Amino acid sequence: MSLIYLISSLPMLSLDTAPGMTPDAFLAACREQLGEQAVAAVEALLNGQALAHPFVEVWLDKEAILRNAVARKRARAAGGDQDRWQRPACGCDSQIEAGVEDAFEEPDPLTRERALDKARWLIAGELQGTDPLSLNVAFAYAVKLAITSRWHALDAARGQQMFDSLTRAGDM
């Protein structure tokens, strides 16, 4: 097991550029260099799944706080019941709440979603901590890789096809 080797071999990530490695390649590298528990945590983070692991649990709690804030904003805008859409969360985070408020200042839904993912990116960075050789670096990398991979998998033509098929289904 060589955490240092793994961390030093990871390509830099940015929301603005395609990732230099796929989630599958990252997971394979983790399997070669990390223990079972760490690999399970990386896999859970890449797939957005729950796992009884400290980093995963904290990440999912932060994600629930963010999603709850988004649900409240959307419910207020629609004049609906916000309580129906709330998920259990252990804490609160005024930085996340402020990030959601800022994101909803964006009139364009795509720009808004990007701003929400920037907030997620910052949360992952905070959870990573200050030790550049910590296992948390690999966990935060998994979160960031999942975010950037999702953005760079979006395809305008495929999205238009999906939109067309959905709107045609409503015409029938």
Describe the structure.
This protein has 8 helices and no strands. By secondary structure, the protein is mainly alpha-helical. The chain has one domain (21-162).
In short:
This protein is an all-alpha fold and 172 residues long.
**What is the N-to-C order of secondary-structure elements (H for helix, E for strand)?**
HHHHHHHH
What is the CA-CA span between the terminal residues?
58 Å
**Amount of beta strand:** under 5%
Give the beta-strand count. 0
Helix-strand makeup class: mainly alpha
Shape: globular
Low-pLDDT ranges: none
Radius of gyration using CA atoms only: 18 Å
Q: Which percent bin holds the helix content? A: 55-70%
Mean of residue pLDDT?
A: 92
Largest sheet: none
Number of helices: 8
Number of domains: 1
Outline the fold blueprint:
Elements: H1 3-9, H2 23-33, H3 36-47, H4 54-78, H5 94-103, H6 109-128, H7 135-153, H8 156-171
